[in-house]
Amino acid sequence: MMRYSIRGPHKGPALLATAVALATVAACSNGAPTGAPPPPTPSGGTSASAAPTSAPPSPTPTPTRTYPLSTAPRTIPAVRDHEAARGPGWKPTPTAGIVIAAGSEGLADEARMLAGELKIAYRGAVAARAGDVELALGGKGSPESYTLTTRDDRVRITGPDQAGVFYGTRTLKQSVNGSGAMPEGTVVDTPAKPQRGLNLDIARKFFTAEWIEARLREMADLKLNQFGLHFSDDQGFRIASDTHPEIVSDQHLTKAEVRRILALAQSLHITVVPEIDSPGHLGAVLRAYPELRLLNVQGTPRQGAIDISKPASARLVDELLREYAALFPGGWFHVGADEYQALTVRSPEASYPQLASAARQKYGPDARVQDLAEGWLNDRAAVVRGTDKVAKAWNDGFFRGGVVNADKGIEVEYWTGKEIGVRPPVEYLAEGRKVVNLNDEYLYYVLGEPNQFTYPTGRRIYEQWTPRVLRGTTPVPARYDPQILGARFAVWCDLSRAQTQAQVADGIRLPLTALAQKVWDPARPTLTWDQFRALAAEVR
Questions:
Q1: Could you give the 3-state DSSP secondary structure of residue 413?
Q2: C-beta separation of 206 from 147 below 8 A
Q3: pLDDT attached to residue 418
């Protein structure tokens, strides 16, 4: 609420009235009627009975407007630090514009986007004036951090990189969407985790490019920065291929569509991480190469599993890895490594003697089938590394007690503790490995809810989960927090017809929103779930 006060220590209506009364008394103290001039002074000297002439009284102060201390902008994720100030804040007006500071021309795309969203002018690299929003590169801070200052009827957003400035524009956009204005003061904000995002399975269920682009826009407003694209599995291979067109499913994304998706993602500071899962989950590929299927000792093929004892298997998968590494410009490639069916039987060596023989031949007399699988993972990671990308792999592809150990440079994507032989997350962390959280207890949205999966709720994530809760519901010790790189919410389409694209979009909206809050700031939120859910509707 706005108030009025006079300058100086006395404030409020009662004190103003007192000041006026005192001024009236002073004016009447010479005995003259109010408004009458003082008696004349005789020429040639002063009257002995006259009072000395005093300085004219100061004019009555003009009241000025003051404001209560501002409160932090209401956004998702919540800003981590806000220095309150007194002032009207900022709101878009017909004369307002978005400008770029000198030397920050690389922010032109971010500036144009914000101008369109706020429906005000983009004026380019010119000096800011009253009512403007200025974007600038510079200052110290961690990657993706930003400072947003609202003062003197203008906003200035600065950051050490373009992503940080972009996130500052998301804060401004949300605040204006929710309240119509940006409060006075200074926001200093930075994410707790560097990897924050969504994982989508388009192999089992085809999603259109337009649907994916809509999710990227939602992600960007939530300051999420990583989109995992699982496009190869037993049910389908969903991106066009130049090297192996014979493996591509009828419903698929063209490379032109993928490039369009990638261009949008790049403009939103989102990295798309492709995944070609192997040596399991290759059923769609193996339909064109049945001679590479993994057969057990009875000659029965295992679904989706490739025979990693055959050199042709590695050549085929590596050709695909190199093709799609060239298509996707981001810094990661997911190579899978989960649920290899040869390792789900009581005795892999007895069931798959060709794998056991290949393991001993390659890694020595003590090597087992798990060592051949671990070597496969290392070899695929080396191919990815040769394309200047970091390899990711699912946690059940990392084994203990063998003669071959997984390369320490591979990021562990921890999703489950339910598979045979799967180790608890602390074991990976104690080895010094870096881990990303995809906990299937909270972050797995599996269509049709098979195998005792239930659709995760935003409320559970918001109230119970943090990035340290890697498996089940128990967090790992705080000392491992720096090794946890972040988290992604994952959509898996096991029963692909259970939901439409529209139902999936609606079902994941609040869970993804809750995840965005907890990877930006894992501390206990200040809002209740009901308040948070209401805010999510306001700011979008």
A1: strand
A2: no
A3: 78
Q: How far apart are CA 88 and CA 98, in angstroms?
A: 19
Please choose, from the candidates 296, 295, 299, 305, the residue with its C-alpha nearest in 3D space to the C-alpha of residue 376: 305
The answer to whether the beta carbons of residues 103 and 86 sit under 8 Å apart is: no
Sequence letter at residue 187: V
Q: Where are the alpha helices (DSSP H) in 126-282?
A: 162-179, 209-221, 255-267
Cβ atoms < 10 Å from Cβ of 36: 11
Residue 471's identity, in one-letter code, is R
Confidence at residue 45, expressed as pLDDT on a 0 to 100 scale: 38
The pLDDT of residue 479 is 98
Contact 51, 30 (CB under 8 A): yes
CB atoms closer than 10 angstroms to residue 129: 14
List phi, psi (to 5°) of 225. -130, 10
Ranges of the chain whose pLDDT falls below 70:
1-64, 420-421
Burial of 15 per CB tally in 10 Å (0-12, 13-18, 19+): middle
Rg (CA), the chain: 33
List phi, psi (to 5°) of 265: -60, -45
DSSP state of 90: B
| DSSP, res 337 | -
| C-alpha angle 251-254-260 in degrees, rounded to nearest 5 | 130
Q: In this structure, are residues 226 and 270 in contact, taking their beta carbons and an 8 Å threshold?
A: yes
> Would you state the pLDDT for residue 13?
38
CB 327, CB 271: distance < 8 Å? no
Contact 389, 333 (CB under 8 A): yes
DSSP, collapsed to helix, strand or coil, labels residue 229 as: strand
Angstrom distance (rounded) from CA 536 to CA 523: 18
Under 8 Å between Cβ of 131 and 120: no
- Helix, strand, or coil here: 2? coil
Q: CB-hemisphere CA count at 13 Å for 340?
A: 33
Does the N-terminal peptide bond of residue 40 adopt cis geometry, omega within 30 degrees of 0?
no
d(CA 268, CA 259) in angstroms, rounded, equals: 14
Interatomic CA distance for residues 383 and 224, integer angstroms: 28
CB half-sphere exposure, 385, CA atoms < 13 A = 11
DSSP calls for 99-114: EE-TT-GGGHHHHHHH
Specify whether the CB–CB gap between 154 and 97 falls below 8 A. Answer: no
- d(C-alpha 490, C-alpha 200), whole Å: 6
- pLDDT tens figures, 43-64: 333 333 334 444 555 555 555 5
Q: For 386-457, where are the alpha helices, taking DSSP H only?
A: 425-430
What are 246's two structure tokens? 């014979």
Contacts of 258 (CB under 8 A, 6+ apart): 209, 239, 327
The pair of structure tokens assigned to 257 is 């569509």
